[in-house]
Amino acid sequence: MNLWLSEIAKAxxxxxxxxxxxxxxxxxxxxxxxxxxxTLFIPLKGSRFDGxxxxxxxxxxxxxxFISQKDFEDIKVPYIKVQDSLLALQSLACYAxxxxxxxxxxxxxxxxxxxxxxxxxxxxxxRKYKAFxxxxxxxxxxxxxxxxxxxxxxxxxAVFEMGMSNFxxxxxxxxxxxxxxxxxxNIGVAHIENLKSRYNIFLAxxxxxDGMPESGILIINSDNDILNLHKKELKRxxxxxxxxxxxxxxxxxxxxxxxxFSFEVGGYTYFIESFNFHDIYNSLFAIAVGTILEVDRxxxxxxxxxxxxxxxxxxxxxxxxITVVDDTYxxxxxxxxxxxxxxxxxxxxxxxxxxxxxxxxxxxEEEHRKVGRYILQKPIDVVICTGKDAIYIFDxxxxxxxxxxxxVSKDECLDVLKREVTSNSTILFKASRGVKLDEVVDxxxxxx
Length: 448
Hints:
cell shape; cell division; 7-stranded parallel β-sheet; single chain; Udp-n-acetylmuramoylalanyl-d-glutamate--2,6- Diaminopimelate Ligase, Chain: A, domain 1; 6-stranded mixed β-sheet; cell cycle; 448 residues; UDP-N-acetylmuramoyl-L-alanine:D-glutamate ligase; alpha/beta; ligase; globular; Protein-Tyrosine Phosphatase, Chain A
């Protein structure tokens, strides 16, 4: 977005220093090394680093100005003095959003599936509109505002993923982005350590309504027990998607094919190139958004067929006759069970390499045991558990007759895999990101 420096100062109630003539800012960055043409550097003070220590580096790399909560008497370029640079960033993003009166915004939150849902929606909307999405992990109180500021001026529709770990965080993001359409993918147990119950997680995710207009539309997954039970508490018009329960956009006649799933919605057939059953739900959100924003049905069908391949999110990698499924980006109980379901559809020997699910607090043992008990019902041949609380998965899974269960260190996982992997094996790797199970995946692939 293009903004004049004087305009920025007024929007954030800042004081212009060393100002003689106005400059047009076209880009915004919080990283002193990532400075493009006509960039305003916004240094943030964190627990480990202070961005103000890198102001001179940002200027050397081409920044034309900066915002600062510190005085810089030895710097002669114009800059804006503020009380708090983080609040200034968020205030500026609010101002930029208000300027874009015709912009339609879709906000996506939920316990799992946010990124995949965002990608499907972006694919659909890009077929008709000049669309924008926040990248990677830019889904928090810092990433979302900087994404809005770097959005092209001609953007017609934006899709923003919104993450949280506690009350008030989604509300802040919603009031900045002001979504016209809000999406809650599901309510699981991610962040239950902080929020103590799934109902509280529902309340925290429901804060997405706080920045929505009264005419806004909220799309929810009616197959999710908590959302279905409490949907009458929501304050905006509710549209539902689902497979099992009656929904406005319901997938029926679901068929698994060699390279994905086909299903019918409202009498029309759709196909997604994905091995992950949960992507049906993610694509249903995109079908619903496309319908609401009047994207031609044929364009929607083409757009959801294949989303961008997301690294370490149920990423299927073929190595000769062996299939590796790298789902190590993150894990919760819901996503664990969903991934196990999907693996059961693969042919041949099925091996699970599972690590801890983090941030479960006092609920951790029971949630890990729940995964182990679930495995007992499934045609899984080998379970390899690693970590601290993954021992509870092992403790349940070892009860399964005819299968083998191991509890080993992360370093020992490869030794067990060498013994257990045979031709036509499928191996699922899944754990929370902090476990760093991706390192085992990389080592395993390196040796194949």
